[in-house]
């Protein structure tokens, strides 16, 4: 074998409940089939490219992908650290253990600046998707999160001062400047248009349409998860999730209409990108069916409420100081605490595995996947 043995678990993990050292276990279905379970007419898609954009609730989606791939022994394309040499364009050689003649990956989902030729082209094997957010709320979040490391944000005493004249604080090409303006456009691998006018912008967006099968909306996460579940032929249990990388709502700067308009104007390329994918999203919802969407969202919310009740101590997200277990305490970055979750004590073993997967933050889960990667390399070489 080369790098990743296709059969990670010996036997059926749903029966044995065992796996190699570092495995997160499995979230095996139990009891009656859930409503809306995949029909036999389609096969669950397992070859996925997720462009993880910044400050868009993308960490919640990565948790879903981590769990799905981990429990099915799928091959993750992993970075050496936690990002693929970001903010440089993605390069295949940055994938841990990459070799031009090695086996293809199943899931690519960690931070990168998108670069289609290096990702692997757009063939029928992989499903490409991403998520976008209103540039106004995205910029507010970025200002809060990255203020300590982005010079354009550090120079301003407040978001209001930055908004009053962002050009006085922003230096194009300065280290970290991509966080301060048109961050979505940058993450999608696009450069600022060389010529003025809308033609170049529209051409770039049409190019993205030809690559991405689905682009989700942060503001409509439940609708997004329903569409994703349908597109991938997955179960509800596969897409039910808790929010990750979440700030305390009290720390969120509430934007008025004028502030929001100013942020959208400053991030005008992101605004074009967002409105474009907003239209394609709602076109897809309409095609999916309003009544069907309402029904599936109700199932999704019911399952999330049940997992919340059974898994979470305190019934929801907690400040990091209230999370004793460092394996599930989120990494803290920026000036505002990042919330996480604590598990109910004395969970049954099967439920313990599922709940722990659902609350494990992105960085810790990636470390666990790394441990599995190393395990497979060692056993490959025996």
From TrEMBL:
GO biological process annotation, one example: glycolipid biosynthetic process
Molecular function per GO: galactosylceramide sulfotransferase activity
Record-level GO cellular component terms: Golgi membrane
Chief location: Golgi
Record-linked Pfam families: Gal-3-0_sulfotr
Keywords: Glycoprotein, Golgi apparatus, Membrane, Signal-anchor, Transferase, Transmembrane, Transmembrane helix
Membrane topology listed for this record: Single-pass type II membrane protein
Location(s) in or outside the cell: Golgi apparatus membrane
Region of interest called Disordered, as start-end residue ranges on this chain: 14-36
Aminoacyl-tRNA synthetase found in the keyword field: no
Family: Belongs to the galactose-3-O-sulfotransferase family.
Protein name as annotated: Galactose-3-O-sulfotransferase 4
